[in-house]
């Protein structure tokens, strides 16, 4: 009986090792269908990475903002780490209205997405009520 039980357990462990570690949720949008949507609730954040050279910190110091892209969704967005909510950031899109958000002291914050066929960049500023002092990445 012991050998039979040990054989079943060994087989179960071997099969488990062959299965994927987790099943990633398939993204619910792609390309232009992602524009204006949340990167986390659509599943686009699952394969996202930060574009090389797409991080910027304000000249006087402050939180870093970065551009994130999802290959499976063909979309991009701006993300900022935890920071005081008087910091705001945006995904600026050529010839379109930007997506602007405030930072959160409790968690990372991010903008809505845009289809990555558009030119875009990430910007950050310490909002003083007047605005206009943005520090931005280069255009991608």
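-> sequence recovered:
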């Amino acid at each position: 009986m012991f050998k039979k039980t040990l054989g079943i357990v060994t087989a179960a462990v071997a099969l488990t090792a062959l299965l994927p570690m987790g099943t990633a949720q398939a993204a619910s949008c792609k390309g232009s269908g992602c524009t204006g949507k949340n990167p986390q609730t659509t599943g686009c954040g699952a394969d996202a990475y930060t574009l090389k050279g797409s991080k910027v910190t304000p000249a006087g110091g402050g939180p870093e903002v970065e551009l994130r892209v999802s290959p499976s969704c063909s979309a991009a967005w701006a993300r900022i780490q935890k920071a005081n909510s008087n910091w705001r950031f945006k995904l600026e899109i050529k010839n379109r209205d930007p997506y602007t958000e405030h930072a959160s002291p409790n968690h990372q914050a991010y903008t809505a997405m845009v289809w990555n066929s558009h030119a875009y960049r990430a910007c950050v500023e310490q909002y003083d009520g007047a605005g206009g002092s943005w520090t931005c990445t280069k255009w991608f």
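Residues 2-23 have pLDDT under 50 and may be disordered.
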